[in-house]
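Quick illustration, no need to memorize.
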Amino acid sequence: MRYYAGLVHGNPGAEESYVNVLLTTLAKGPASVVALVPGISPPSLSSFARDADEQNWIDSYHFNYEQLDGTKIVSLILTLAGYRFYHFFRTDYTLKTILALPGGEQEPVSFAVKRMSRFPAAPISIARVREPFRWDAA
């Protein structure tokens, strides 16, 4: 089973960093859903911050949301969730990752990724799946 281990190799671009911060923020926060549309700038992550510390952490990335490539962000998330161009009729995916916590702790988390239609350039929604999963059962 493949899973997203974070953007730890090389020097990530703005879109890769956005995906990393988005998934981390969704994993830590209350239940929320984010909709992303190819070709349109992604939403500001500030509205998903739980507290001032998280807000400062998000702000430290200095995202220029208007400059971010929404199509690339959607493509990155779909690829991480297992989408392939030959999945003509599939619209629901699960992205599994590990959330790094303070003190070196780690927590497995998963996200439901849904394509809103079967068209290649379809918008997607992302939501954290709150029930725990086991890596060996997936």
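The two ends are 7 Å apart (CA to CA).
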